[in-house]
UniProtKB/TrEMBL annotation:
Keywords: Amino-acid biosynthesis, Aromatic amino acid biosynthesis, Coiled coil, Cytoplasm, Isomerase, Lyase, Multifunctional enzyme, Phenylalanine biosynthesis. Catalyzes the Claisen rearrangement of chorismate to prephenate and the decarboxylation/dehydration of prephenate to phenylpyruvate. Pfam families: ACT, CM_2, PDT. Pathway: Metabolic intermediate biosynthesis; prephenate biosynthesis; prephenate from chorismate: step 1/1; Amino-acid biosynthesis; L-phenylalanine biosynthesis; phenylpyruvate from prephenate: step 1/1. Residues 296-373 form the ACT domain. It catalyses: chorismate = prephenate; prephenate + H(+) = 3-phenylpyruvate + CO2 + H2O. This is Bifunctional chorismate mutase/prephenate dehydratase.
Amino acid sequence: MDLQALRTQISETDEQLLQLLARRQELTKAVAEDKIRNRKNVRDTGREEALLMQLVSKGQEFGLAPQYVKSLFHLIIEDSVLNQQALLSQHANPDRQTSINRVAFLGDKGSYSYLATQKYFTRRPGILQEIGCQSFAEIFQHVENGTADYAVLPIENTSSGSINEVYDQLQHSDIAIVGELTQPVRHAILTKDEKDLSNVNVLYGHPQVFQQCSQFLSTLGNVQRQFCDSTFHALKLVSESERFDIAAIGSAEGGALYDLFPIQNNIANQQENHSRFIVIAKESVVVPLQIPAKTTFVMSTVQKPGALVEALVVLKDNNINMTKLESRPITGNPWEEMFYIDVEGNIQDGPVEKTIEELTSITRNLKVLGCYPSEDIDHTKVPMVKALSKN
């Protein structure tokens, strides 16, 4: 069989795989509807572990490596969990279902916020109407004025840390956090043609991106760095320029929207580079108890020694896991701090509700910013000794 015939068979096999994956998604939807009726939790880790072990064993019979099978089905199970969570959320919030979702985000097509927006709303019904913005302040204004139903905002990055401007906007805005997602960030150097990196004299990018790629950029010698308001602006500038000695830093996916080529991939300081985004809206949402949830609140403590420790002890005593603690100055009150806290748990559940009540009684003020589905999907572990037992 010649190469072309082999490629044709591969393409036919790929199409069959896509049909089977679509069929699996339909079955997943039916499972979610059953869980809605019977009030069952979305995740059953015991079932997931048994399924993975069975699949690894069956894969070995077909000559497939255990790691390959696990990696593939981790993605499939994650997709199943997120689709089920989205369906349960829709069922719990019927008044939020609209034919159009107007969503504000930083930059425009190609920015990391754009990619995160596309990822999050792919699982939600309704047509996505994109509203690209030039600043975080503009994004908040769209939601507050009702010209956007939602906004997607970067809140922290595993390499460069928290995005303080977003926290400061949250402090002064009357909005609710209704969702979150984590997006892999894979920085690349993008040009109009597939030139060599030595031909690049000027690099365009967002300041946060330069910070996240500082180690690689330090090896480029005299290449100039030009700051842009967003990754979108960097991509657009290089795409529309007549110069061929300039490049932008962004994702390969974003660059493809502007016919830019990645000439150097994976340039971030950390190979596991991820950004966490929050989704905000004017009104809060109801999170079904079957879905893993997070609650975010902001508080200021009384001015006395040990006040923050006293507040954190409340979390410990109620067995509440804190996933984020961020402090920001209180505008107009020198040397006083506002604390942003993320915890695992649903505001409707007893332990979180009790924690909020106790904290309210010992702090100067406390405001819940939102309770929302958690999209941090921990992959089910399969004991390697069991996975390999049939070798």
